[in-house]
Amino acid sequence: MSQRASNYLVIPLCPPCHTGKHGIHGDKAMLKIRKVDELDLLAETIASLI
């Protein structure tokens, strides 16, 4: 039986940012506009929690 990955690396997103046309699973346009990637979003999330 495999172990489930930790939720520590989960990035909370609103529905449009997650599944919308320009979201993470869309064409990623907002990531390109902001010049960030998923790891940058994770760093922003962690920083906001501190």
What does this molecule look like?
The protein is built from three helices and no strands. It has 50 residues and is mainly alpha-helical. The protein has one domain (12-49). The radius of gyration is 13 Å and the shape is globular.
Descriptors for this entry?
50 residues; mainly alpha; single chain; globular
Structural class: mainly alpha
Which overall shape is indicated by the principal axes computed on the Cα atoms?
globular
Low-confidence stretches: none
Quaternary organisation of the protein chains? single chain
How much β-strand is present in the residues? under 5%
Number of domains: 1
Helix content: 40-55%
Mean pLDDT: 82
Could you tell me how far the N terminus lies from the C terminus, measured between alpha carbons in angstroms? 35 Å
Largest sheet: number of strands, sense, barrel closure:
none
Number of strands: 0
Number of DSSP helical runs = 3
Along the chain, the helix and strand elements come as: HHH
Rg for CA atoms:
13 Å
Summarize the structure.
The chain has 50 residues and is mostly helical. Helices cover 46% and strands 0% of the residues. The protein has helices spanning 15-19, 29-34, 38-49.
Chart the SSEs and their pairings:
Blueprint: H1 15-19, H2 29-34, H3 38-49
